[in-house]
Amino acid sequence: MAWLQLKIDSAKADAERIEEALELVGAGAIMMEDAADQPLFEPPLGTTPLWDATRIVALFTIDSDIDAIIEFLNDHLEGGLPSHRVEILEDQVWERAWMDHYHPMCFGDRLWVVPSWTPPPQPDAINLLLDPGLAFGTGTHATTALCLEWLDGLDLQDKVVIDYGCGSGILAIAALLLGAKHAYCVDIDPQALLATKDNAARNGVADRMSVFFPDAMPKLKAEVVIANILAGPLAELAPILADLCDTNGDLALSGIIDSQVEETREAYAPWVTLDLLKVKDENWCRLSGKRLSTVS
User: Which of 53, 69, 91 delimits the end of a domain?
Assistant: First the structure.
């Protein structure tokens, strides 16, 4: 069925009380959106950050008396209801609409990421089968794309790879499909490790993959280490990630915006000289380099 959609432009400080009022008036669903394209980077654990300009979207059944709802909100909220508008959200097959927006993607010269419901555009290419899921990493985000392109450009034949912060396992699986001998995957999220195992099995590489929580990660050296996380954790992990990378091994870091590049480089300077690749028209960056033989 169709829905009535009430969109309210709110300041961050007012969002919670507007949400409470919408619950009182019987909203079927309430969502928060960024109203001003403001990124939120690395919120503290246990917090639910909001944007300075937050758009609150509430759904009501199509037969709801929207005039009465707005009148209630105006009376209930101190200062009245902020700027708002009402739209009709037409019914559609949501699963089909979602599937229509996720297509096969090519990264580099050899690698494709292909959803399960779509035939591979190039059957003889290296096709990684992956559907969007709860764990981060499907190739659609710039940071994941940067890492996949980097892996596609390496000679991975018979090499050991560590994917630190593996999410969906997409990077480790890509490395294995591109010729790596074994991949070690690390994440703090149990759902990520489960998704990684499932995706590895779907792509026929589960026998060449091991997954760990950080504390259980064995001591080893890998020829390739990749971490697509965020700048803060990457800086904290610098000694650990550098130690996991074999001498003259390849290290790549992503999840960094351009204003965080120099700080990240400095964190790794004793072990790796990092080169920069920036995504065009976006702030996301990838840093990569070779593990030095000696520590300066």
Answer: 91
Number of folded domains that form the chain: 2
DSSP E strand boundaries for 140-244: 160-164, 182-186, 209-212, 222-228
Residues 160 and 215 in one domain: yes
pLDDT (tens digit per residue) in 230-248: 888 999 999 999 999 999 9
The confidence score (pLDDT) of residue 184 equals 98
Burial 42-66 (b: 16+ CB within 10 A, else e): eeeeeeeebbeebbbbbbbeeebee
Q: Which residue has the tokens 């940067």?
A: 146
Is the model's pTM score more than 0.70?
no
Residue 128 near residue 177, CB atoms below 8 Å: yes
Give the β-pairing of 182-186 and 160-164. Answer: parallel
Residues 45 and 106 both lie in one domain: no
> What is the mean predicted confidence (pLDDT) over 206-234?
94
What does the block give as tokens for 91? 């019914």
- Residue ranges making up the domain that contains 43: 3-91
Both 117 and 75 in a single domain? Answer: no
Note whether 85 and 118 are same-domain residues: no
Sign of the dihedral defined by the CA atoms of residues 243, 245, 247, 248, in that order: negative
What is the per-residue pLDDT for 46?
Answer: 46
Contact 207, 184 (CB under 8 A): no
Q: Element (H or E) spanning 176, and its range?
A: helix 170-177
Residue 132 lies in a domain: yes
**Alpha carbon distance 197, 282 (integer Å):** 32
Inter-residue contact 99 to 115 (CB < 8 Å)? yes
- Domain identity same for 131 and 267: yes
Residue 208 in domain? yes
> Is 83 exposed, middle or buried (CB count within 10 Å of its CB: 0-12, 13-18, 19+)?
exposed
